[in-house]
């Protein structure tokens, strides 16, 4: 199946809607169009002036908007949750009258995102006039798209105009999908920003914050991040949880909303077709009319359940209300029971109808031996054991904090897991295997999965140092960590998971390096991610080539939530930030010397307040109260002690 070329597309997002077009604004087939709730609402949108398509170039003006400019005329585009608007403006910059005929053609095909990815879109359907400036397109299964045109045209979307010198004429087309429930758009939520001696950090953070804002969806009163545009504008367990964790400097609300949304859908029974199991957290959620290959609610993920517990624990430390945390403790207990219910390690086996691989490297060749063989059968991924260890320890802490029984059981379980991991996973070269098979064979490919073990507590200090060394020696490229070492027989820089670079994968390892005290190694990855951001106009894609040029991966989603969250996550690492609101403590221990020079972070959200923090080039810290005084961060009014390892 040929993959769609997305890298050069102009994308405007307001989840669950997204526009895709070429740099000239034209939508003429393939993946282009306007999507709402996993269905294409507009498949073809063509503008001609005097019978010819105008030459235009694009400028992105925000995550949800773009302008396409010609010599005199423009197209302005805006995404909105139920659709979007396209405004075409003709201008007369000459000294004499200008006559022109503006014509627009619009059509849809109602295709699902899955069908479009497979290259099987439906036949196009023209919008039919109703009354005044309203047109409609309706599918046989009940999908309906309304087109409102202002001003109404002379004929079928045609306007003949004469413009006096300096005069302008605009036509607005508003497309709205009307067969789905009204979608509440959460208000803009973050004031986080940074000013650094290295200005690339400023732009990366600003762009990432805008994209995360555009990828937010509401689930009742709760908010979560959709995974990415255009194929994943829905709830994905693993992606939403990691994006929320990485984005905690923006505040705790999204993390809290994510665990509530996922907890409400936690598995309660055994269903083979959906792979639901009691306690299991779902993999993805799709509208029933857009499900493709997988059921609308599908649970085939091996890591989201542990990440659910870790994310709730993070949210509690960052200031999630204690009563809201306590309400989710039954979900924590069910999740821990699911982890402990595996024989041996936390593992998966393909059912033959769901995903072949159920970790974050979920492509068919995502788990490889060093000799290039593809690992199959029952697989226990190394990073999943790290997540499970962290979930058990931090879940125990949550149970203790709220006076619930069972904490020591889970600490004992975690300690036993760590010892068994130590015996089963370590390869002769001094690094953990990417996975262990059901027969106990180590899948010995040198892969970036090991980076996710850092900071989980599973590794000893010596083991952590060994992993750090292998990451930098075998997997580092100038633009981040390769997913598979170049020495592996199956290495392919242009593959999806066998040598490419994923920004979120790199920043997770970077955070672990910083937490485990490997500051120099962490600093080198900060520089690599900033170099990559510059390469991609600071809107980091889902992935890119693992070669020394960071070659674009043509089908990469952009924006992708966990790639957008790299900017806020870098601030956590650079600040050496550790937040523990229940203990009344916020600690800064910056990477020093700073790899970005002196910098100041404004609008860092913790619980109910905001902080401004300045770090000089040597790593000395100055903390300033934000708009809300730091004394009111804690529910009982106690002041929050702030410490810095190298305070100025």
From TrEMBL:
It comes from Dactylosporangium cerinum. Residues 379-535 form the Mannosylglycerate hydrolase MGH1-like glycoside hydrolase domain. Pfam families: GDE_N_bis, MGH1-like_GH. This is Glycogen debranching N-terminal domain-containing protein. It comes from the Bacteria. Residues 16-174 form the Putative glycogen debranching enzyme N-terminal domain. InterPro entries: 6-hairpin_glycosidase_sf (IPR008928), 6hp_glycosidase-like_sf (IPR012341), GDE_N_bis (IPR032856), MGH1-like_GH (IPR054491).
């Amino acid at each position: 199946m040929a993959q769609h070329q997305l890298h050069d597309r102009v994308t405007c997002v307001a989840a669950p809607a997204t526009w895709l077009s070429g740099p000239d604004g034209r939508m003429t087939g393939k993946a282009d169009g306007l999507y709402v709730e996993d269905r294409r609402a507009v498949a073809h949108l063509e503008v001609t002036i005097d019978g010819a398509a105008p030459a235009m170039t694009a400028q992105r003006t925000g995550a949800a908007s773009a302008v396409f400019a010609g010599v005199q005329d423009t197209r302005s585009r805006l995404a909105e949750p139920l659709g979007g608007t396209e405004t075409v403006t003709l201008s007369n910059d000459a000294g004499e009258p200008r006559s022109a005929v503006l014509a627009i053609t619009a059509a849809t095909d109602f295709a699902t995102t899955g069908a479009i990815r497979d290259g099987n879109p439906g036949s196009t359907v023209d919008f039919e006039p109703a009354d005044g400036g309203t047109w409609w397109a309706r599918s046989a299964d009940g999908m309906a798209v309304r087109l409102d045109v202002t001003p109404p045209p002379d004929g079928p979307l045609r306007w003949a105009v004469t413009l006096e010198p300096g005069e302008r004429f605009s036509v607005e087309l508003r497309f709205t999908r009307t067969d789905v429930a009204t979608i509440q758009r959460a208000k803009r939520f973050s004031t986080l920003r940074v000013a650094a001696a290295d200005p690339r950090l400023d732009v990366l953070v600003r762009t990432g914050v805008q994209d995360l804002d555009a990828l937010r969806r509401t689930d009742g009163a709760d908010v979560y991040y959709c995974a990415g545009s255009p194929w994943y504008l829905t709830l994905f367990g693993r992606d939403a949880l990691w994006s929320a964790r990485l984005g905690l400097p923006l505040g705790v609300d999204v993390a809290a909303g994510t665990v509530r949304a996922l907890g409400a859908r936690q598995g309660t029974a055994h269903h083979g077709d959906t792979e639901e199991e009691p306690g299991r957290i779902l993999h993805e959620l799709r509208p029933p009319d857009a499900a493709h290959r997988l059921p609308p609610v599908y649970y085939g993920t091996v890591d989201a359940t542990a990440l659910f517990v870790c994310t709730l624990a993070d949210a509690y430390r960052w200031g999630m209300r204690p009563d809201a945390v306590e309400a989710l403790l039954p979900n924590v207990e069910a999740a821990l029971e699911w982890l402990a219910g595996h024989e041996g390690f936390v593992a998966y086996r393909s059912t033959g109808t769901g995903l072949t691989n159920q970790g974050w490297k979920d492509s068919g060749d995502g788990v490889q031996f060093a000799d290039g063989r593809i690992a199959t059968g029952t697989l226990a991924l190394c990073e999943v054991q790290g997540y499970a260890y962290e979930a058990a320890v931090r879940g125990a802490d949550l149970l203790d904090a709220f006076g619930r029984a069972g904490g020591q059981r889970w600490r004992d379980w975690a300690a036993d897991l760590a010892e068994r991991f130590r015996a089963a996973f370590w390869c002769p070269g001094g690094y953990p295997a990417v996975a262990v098979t059901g027969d106990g064979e180590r899948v010995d490919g040198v892969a970036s999965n090991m980076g996710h073990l850092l900071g989980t507590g599973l590794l000893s200090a010596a083991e952590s140092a060994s992993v750090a060394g292998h990451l930098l020696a075998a997997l580092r490229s100038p633009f981040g960590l390769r997913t598979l070492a170049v020495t592996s027989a199956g290495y392919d820089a242009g593959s999806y998971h066998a040598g490419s670079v994923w920004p979120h994968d790199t920043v997770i390892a970077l955070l672990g390096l910083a937490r485990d005290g490997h500051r120099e190694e962490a600093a080198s990855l900060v520089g690599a991610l900033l170099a990559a951001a510059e390469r991609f106009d600071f809107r980091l894609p889902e992935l890119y080539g693992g070669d020394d040029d960071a070659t674009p991966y043509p089908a990469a989603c952009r924006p992708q939530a966990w790639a957008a969250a790299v900017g806020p996550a870098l601030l956590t690492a650079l600040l050496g930030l550790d937040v523990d609101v229940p203990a009344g403590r916020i600690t800064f221990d910056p990477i020093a010397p700073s790899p970005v020079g002196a910098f100041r972070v404004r609008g860092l959200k913790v619980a109910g307040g905001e902080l401004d923090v300045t770090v000089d080039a040597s790593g000395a810290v100055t903390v300033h109260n934000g708009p809300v005084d730091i004394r009111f961060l804690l529910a009982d009014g106690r002041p929050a002690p702030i410490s810095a390892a190298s305070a100025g």
